[in-house]
Specification:
Pfam families: Methyltransf_11. GO terms for molecular function: S-adenosylmethionine-dependent methyltransferase activity. This is Class I SAM-dependent methyltransferase. Keywords: Methyltransferase, Transferase. This protein is of the alpha/beta class. Helices cover 36% and strands 26% of the residues. It has a single domain, classed as Rossmann fold, CATH 3.40.50. Strand 5, helix 5 and strand 6 form a beta-alpha-beta unit. The N and C termini lie far apart (63 Å). 34% of the residues are buried.
């Protein structure tokens, strides 16, 4: 039985979007994964260090999936629901979760960590990362690249200026890392296919990834959502493309 627009939207608008687990989208949306496998590479790096800081950990799911963790493992997060979720998930693994506003300075001393990591950080404070890294330490991160899922963004917001589309470019990250005194030792980027199979998946995604369409609410965009629902029903999945890049940088001795 085909579910109606109203049912799909109401369901997606009421479900919890806490944490950084997208399993609710299973069967409703697909996203091609980067070829490098961030979590696997992260787990490899954790085995060689005694201290790690995970910046903007979300609900802690990625870090928890790399257990066992180093003796000193700390994660920061700013959003209260995620702080609670990460605490429940990471404390049993021996990791501390610190509430942090995601603004400089990081609440740690100079040279406190051998490894700093972050998956999909909203903002990267490169000078702070360099400060809290020990000499010879590394920063390892998977980040969102330029114009990611902009087919969906521009469906709701219209064409975006070139400077907005170019935001989060990996070349800018390399330059910022260098300016902070870090040497980039690895950089990879890919553009990946994403499909939304029903309008509920779109609503859930925009509620969870709040910077895509800032201030998104079903009420504000209901007419546009209905048009997109009809498009998906008639033409098949809505196709967009995510941009991802992997960056690893070393603090010189």
């Amino acid at each position: 039985m085909t579910r109606t627009f109203d049912h799909l939207v109401a369901e997606a608008d009421s479900v919890s979007v806490d944490g950084w687990d997208f399993s609710w989208l299973d069967g409703r949306a697909t996203e091609q994964r980067p070829s490098w496998g961030y979590q696997r590479l992260l787990a490899e790096r954790l085995t060689g260090v005694r201290s790690v800081l995970d910046v903007q950990t979300g609900g802690g799911e990625v870090l928890a999936g790399c257990a066992p963790l180093p003796a000193l493992t700390v994660a920061t997060e700013s959003w209260p629901p995620n702080i609670d979720r990460a605490t429940r998930l990471l404390h049993p693994l021996g990791a501390a979760v610190v509430a942090d506003a995601d603004e400089p300075p990081l609440p740690f001393g100079d040279g406190a960590f051998e490894l700093v990591v972050s998956r999909h950080p909203v903002t990267v404070w490169w000078e702070e990362i360099a400060r809290v890294l020990a000499p010879g330490g590394r920063y390892f991160s998977q980040q969102v690249g330029p114009a990611s899922v902009f087919e969906l963004v521009e469906y709701f917001l219209g064409p975006q200026p070139e400077e907005v589309r170019r935001g989060r470019h990996p070349d800018d990250a390399v330059a910022a890392a260098g300016a902070a005194g870090l040497e980039v030792v690895d950089l990879r980027s890919e553009r990946l296919r994403t499909e939304f199979h029903d309008i509920g998946a779109v609503v859930y995604f925009l509620r969870k990834v709040i910077w895509m369409v800032p201030g998104f609410t079903v009420g504000q965009y209901r007419n546009r959502l209905r048009e997109l629902h009809e498009q998906i029903e008639n033409d098949g999945p809505f196709v967009a493309h995510t941009a991802r890049f992997l960056i690893e940088a070393r603090k010189t001795d």
